[in-house]
Amino acid sequence: MTPIEAANKLNIHPSTIRQRMKINNCTALDAYNMGISKRPKIKFGQKFSHLEVIDILPSINGNSIALCVCECGRLKQSLSMCLKDGSVTCCGNCGLGRGFSHSKTNSPSYISWLSMKQRCLNNNNPNWRYYGGRGIKVCDRWINSFNNFLNDMGERPKGLTLDRINPNGHYEPNNCRWASRAVQANNTRRSSQTHQ
């Protein structure tokens, strides 16, 4: 099977098959089978603001990754949940997505939200073993919605970062606050065990 045949059968662009072949060091048939075996939560051709989904890539911890083409013509990879909640609206280079949700993607609050999810969901994250590896989770209200996180927590004040009040608890509205490094240093698993 050639890359063009595989792409035609999957109704995707041949460059997507070639990219899969390169990333996974596999044949066109293997890349085709990867496309067949996926169970995407979003669909090929689906539009999200200025982005159109042209492929679903292998997932990370159950979070599917979409390969999209922006209206400006550039390619963009994004977590499907970021497309769904509107936190990613364009490629980021063209200036098309200058609305509320896009402009917030460079804010300190957005970076804290994204970092929180990476620590809990991405087992390739260097800090995953201290969070997701210990069973720490992000609540349903926040996991797919930056806007819900922002409404609950407000903008991150300068000099503060996201902190869990109970270091053994999950990331959820009643267990999170913005705190200084000094406050966080006194709020570790070790310090909470010595106070019990």
Rg, Å, rounded: 20 Å
Residue ranges: pLDDT <50 for 5 or more in a row?
A: 36-40, 99-103, 191-196
**What's the helical proportion of residues?**
25-40%
Number of strands: 6
Determine the N-to-C terminus distance: 64 Å
Strand order of the largest sheet: 1-2-3-4
Percent in strands: 15-25%
pLDDT averaged residue by residue: 77
Structural class: alpha+beta
Shape: elongated
For the sheet with most strands, the description reads:
4 strands, antiparallel
Number of helices: 10
Order of helices and strands: HHHEEEEHHHHHEEHH
Give the arrangement of secondary structure elements.
Blueprint: H1 3-10, H2 14-24, H3 28-37, E1 47-48, E2 51-60, E3 63-70, E4 75-79, H4 80-84, H5 100-103, H6 108-121, H7 140-143, H8 146-153, E5 161-164, E6 176-179, H9 181-185, H10 189-194
Antiparallel strand pairs: 1-2, 2-3, 3-4, 5-6
Give a structural overview.
By secondary structure, the protein is α+β, with helices and mostly antiparallel strands. 38% of the residues lie in helices and 17% in strands. The chain contains 10 helices and 6 strands. The strands form 2 sheets. The chain has a 4-stranded antiparallel sheet with strand order 1-2-3-4. A two-stranded antiparallel ribbon has the order 5-6. A hairpin with a 2-residue loop joins strand 2 and strand 3. The chain is elongated, with a radius of gyration of 20 Å. The C terminus is likely disordered.
